Amino acid sequence: MAAALPGLWYCLHLPASLPDLIDVDIWILKAAQNLRLEHHILMVPIDCFEEDVLGEHLQHHHPVVTICPDELLDEARQRASALGFALPTTPYSQLSDATLAAQWKAIHEHFIPDLPRLPGEVALTHRLDLAPLTLPHRRLARQMGWPTAESVTQDTNMREAFAQALRGQEFLAALARLEREGASHSEAGHRFRQTLEEEADRLRVPLALGLPGTAPAYARVAYDSEIRRRTKPQPAVSPEDTWSATLHERPDHMVERAAIEFAVTHQSVASSGLGLMLPTMPSDAFTILAELERHFHTRHNSAAVKRLFTRLNEAAQPLWTAELKAAIRHASYLAVFSDFPLGLLTMPGDSAPLCARLPVTYRPLQPLTRMMQQQLSAPPAIGLDGTINVLVAECIPVSDPVGRMSRQGWDTACETAAPNSATLTITQAETPTLAALQRSVARHRPDVLIISAHGTMAGNMAALVIGDEPHLDLGLDRMPPVVILSACHVAPRGTGAVSITDLLLREGALAVLGTQVPVDVGRNAMLMVRFMVYLAKENTKPGQFSTILDVWHHVQTSNAVNDIIDASPSLKKWATRTTVDGLPVLVEFMSNRATGRIRPPHVYDDTEHVLGEIADEQGQGDRVRNWFRRPGYVPESLFYVFAGRPDRIHLTPPQLLMEQARPGGSSQA
């Protein structure tokens, strides 16, 4: 992997798609942020660079250029020619701004010679640590006609690079809005300043974050003392972290850093958004997280969980730079490259963790080589805007009380969700063995596979119990794009456990939802039922949610009221009482009182406030608020991890999103 890094970095500076080569409307540039137009980069050993291995893959792509180390040039050139690559093979020693400019020109002349070329160049990146910000900005600048010369030097700091990239996004949003509204040239000039201020305030762009760090418990098992002694925390910014054709020859920690930076930059370029490298996660944060996760294996209580959350946030305090806070405030969603669940941290000024503020998806870093391979695979976006086939595989025996409650929950899901959509079907299957699970998946070929099972820890491995045995490998012939693990603690992070949640991504799943801690079967059933209901609604009447990640985030955060009310028998009983309007408290809250009053960064505090208002009207305000404190509640809904690429599983068709963004566009695709 290390030897490939110089070539991989170089490829990020080439066109990702044909629209990169020509002048396109500004509204398209803004709307394309929803499409994730990734570079298709194939990393392959020289011995596999042949028709027998790559023929089927290349049938679906246009082979453009081969990049290789100098010592492989002659062999790579012959193999590339046989495979029909359009441009001459380029060795590392020829990677330069001049070569890059020549290849942009050659690609244009080969694929679209009749269209005028877009002026401007994309120079090679100098600073890798700032590349997640600077490279998407320079590609945008070329399209917008702004100066594109590499202005990032050894002395450039994060503040300058971030300010430039954010300002570029604000200009793009303002100009795209004026273009969509059909403003004339003179009118746009008159309105631009005010429009820019308005768009700067409401700007939302995809954000990719790189957060290195290894759980100490994992490091003690995986690495010997000498490696642990040589491993040092990495800062967010490292001026000596520069690109060169020999960057793979640097010390190990710098090579690993360059790999993580590449993945984050690859993501931010694909979404034309923002990207940031963060410093290494303090080891104390992993230790406290492990303590928090262990606490859920006992009879957990609200006060202890709150204390652990406070300690966790204190340990992570060094992460919160002004740039990170500003980036998150303007983020539409987070793609986090890390083994730490950043979504559990609370940003200064908020009262609820990040995963309540906005959607979060994770790309695990361990093992780093596999993370790179998965990032490069660039699977195509999947549309679930037609029929959605859901398979619930029940692996818990009916004789188990948890199994009985699980089946009752899925019966409710079928009764509640399926009738709301003619195109969402939920099939329940008894799969008491791994072989039965494999047969059921092969038979039904689901879009969404829900595995209802017990989770277990086998050493430092978080596995599913199927047929009384722990399993990390399901061995499915066809892995569904979405897998939901309705099981306890199958995605713990504090000890760096090898989890089935992460391993299913390697088996081919595009997105996997798992739990960090043991969860209550009733509350988990409530979450899953609500997830199915909103999938059905979106499938029937698209437009509210773009991706399955957006649906999950809405379900997760709007479940705060259930976290609070389910905390004690007293609150449950109170929630069923009628209000002055004749509705049960919970129905009154969800139907009337909460509308427009629940802020995601303060979802639990705001929910308490609205419930307290209802209680005041009943003359029970003090009593109900006391129940919020004693026995209190735990935000169990937040301890779920959505790993992989749920942001690429569309519920609203991408064509419809583009049509809606078009000047004068309608709601019809």
Summing up helix and strand content along with how strands pair, one would put the structural category as alpha/beta
Distance linking N and C termini: 43 Å
Determine the strand fraction and express it as a percent band: 5-15%
Number of helices: 27
> Which assembly state applies to the chains in this document?
single chain
Low-confidence segments, given as residue ranges, are: none
Mean pLDDT: 91
How is the largest sheet built, in terms of strand order?
Answer: 9-8-10-14-16-17
Report the C-alpha radius of gyration, rounded: 26 Å
Inertia-based shape: globular
Number of strands: 18
How would you sum up this structure, described in words?
With 669 residues, the chain is α/β, with parallel strands linked by helices. It is 45% helix and 12% strand. It has 27 helices and 18 strands. The chain has a 6-stranded mixed β-sheet with strand order 9-8-10-14-16-17, with helices on both faces. Strands 4-3-5-6 form a 4-stranded parallel β-sheet. Strands 11, 12, 13 and 15 form a 4-stranded mixed β-sheet that branches. The model has no long low-confidence stretch (mean pLDDT 91).
